[in-house]
Amino acid sequence: QVQLVESGGGLVQAGGSLRLSCAASRFTFGYYAMSWYRQAPGKERELVARISSGGTTNYVDSVKGRFTISRDNAKNTVYLQMNSLKPEDTAVYYCNTLLYGRNYWGQGTQVTVSS
After folding, report:
1. What is the rounded CA–CA span in Å between residue 51 and residue 25?
2. Sequence-distant (≥ 6) Cβ neighbours of residue 37 within 8 angstroms
3. pLDDT band at residue 36 using 50, 70 and 90 as cut-offs
4. pLDDT (tens digit, 9 = 90+) per residue, 4-25?
5. Residue pair 73/81 in contact by the 8 Å Cβ criterion
């Protein structure tokens, strides 16, 4: 069974930084795209960033220039570096991958940005 375990969330002041990590196991990590999603209270889950198996990245407009997604295939880990955080970035952040048409999710990590 695919496992995705997020870490690195927390409480930070506006303008601060956090780095999220997602440790993946039980599948061939380097072959698959990885994504970060987030869900704020009362809102739908949204795609924040995606990195392909080849390293191509995509971001939602609201985080471009502030967030960076990266991966370390040797460690089976995907990261989300978040800089210049804003209160509207407050959400539960989820790691995601799509294997054989099925979405797999981590348990989520809470990010809270105070103003």
Report:
1. 17
2. 45, 46, 47, 48, 93, 94, 96
3. very high
4. 999 999 999 999 999 999 999 9
5. no
